[in-house]
Design goal:
13 strands, alpha+beta, six-stranded antiparallel sheet, five-stranded mixed sheet, globular
Amino acid sequence: MHFSKKSSTALIVILIVFLMTCALVLPQLFNDYRLKTNLLAFQQREMKSSVDNFILIIDSIRTKIITDYEKNGIKYTEEDVKNETLSFIRNIVHESTFANGAYIWINEVTDFNGGENYGIRQVHGNLPETEGIALSTLTKDAGGNTPYLTELEGIKKDGEITYKYYFKEYKSENISEKVTYARLYRPYNWIVCTGTYLNSMYEPAGGVSHKKKLIFYSSCFLSFITSLILFFYIMISNCRNSRKLMTETENLKLKVSKDSLTGAGSRAFGDSLLHEYYSTYQTCGKNYAIAILDIDNFKPINDKYGHNSGDAVIKKIVSTVEKSLNMDDHIIRWGGDEFILTFNTIPESLEKKLGQINKNIKEESVRSSNGEIINFSVSIGASYFIERDNCIEDTIKRIDDALYLAKRRKNSFYII
């Protein structure tokens, strides 16, 4: 077949544009895939961390309730503890917000064989009106899958599971794919879950619709100049997306390390820090002072003035303690009303330090929504690492003992 000189030139230009389009499109497709894969893996780790931390909170609340019952000589059943724990958890979940449209929900398994009425929806962050409904493993999602059956089988096998299903978006008629992590809380056969929609998670990674991609790819064939413009546009866009993803990743890490209410260190951050300090003590001999601070009679404050006032008390205590800490010291929210203090450099007089913190807190107050002044106090137990500590839990147990002795002294502190 014979081509004129002009035709040959045109074919060469078309070939160049085609090759340039491939050079532009294939890296973009790979980059989209890589970003989405990395973001999904990161989100799955964060969901597992969120559920693990939330189960620690549940266990802490349950332990505190039992302790309060026994301290006050109240006869109770496990059902009483369960119901009061559930009440606290519902308040926490209903008032919490999470990134990427995620939320927490809890299903209680009453029959591990599955079928109709195998479980009960106990808590739901987005749909509280569904709390109390019966669940069935025969229920299908919008894609014809049976997510409750998948969840139950995974829980029975491994005690946890990550899976996907289709669900209507919150306050929308859109059906989207959702990724979920679930773990069993054995004391009450609660399946604690968190999940997020894939489209809301992928949006920061620069995900676009097939129609927009088709327009983009077609425009590359219009002319050599258009191809160059698109090339530079994509390069700039990729740089922005990469910076945006890095920023959002750092923000997610920061949220995981910080308690959302007070800005103190989170339980996950504190657990990591304490293990790091214990390892340093074992290898280098450097010691640290560690204290547990517990708010005295916090439940009556919540019951009398409401959770908003209780939150105000917690925030006031954190801000007061932070004023007494050095740059490399930390305050960590260990439980609902319990905090851990770490002193990187042991004060010359730890007793004086803890006494001043205790005194400063007693001098503070907050005002309730109806204008009443709320006074509060704390008890503090403290200790150091010692040679017979086989693990960080041994140290925490000793500090808990010190806290118990401080509680007996009434609004005081005790060092073991």
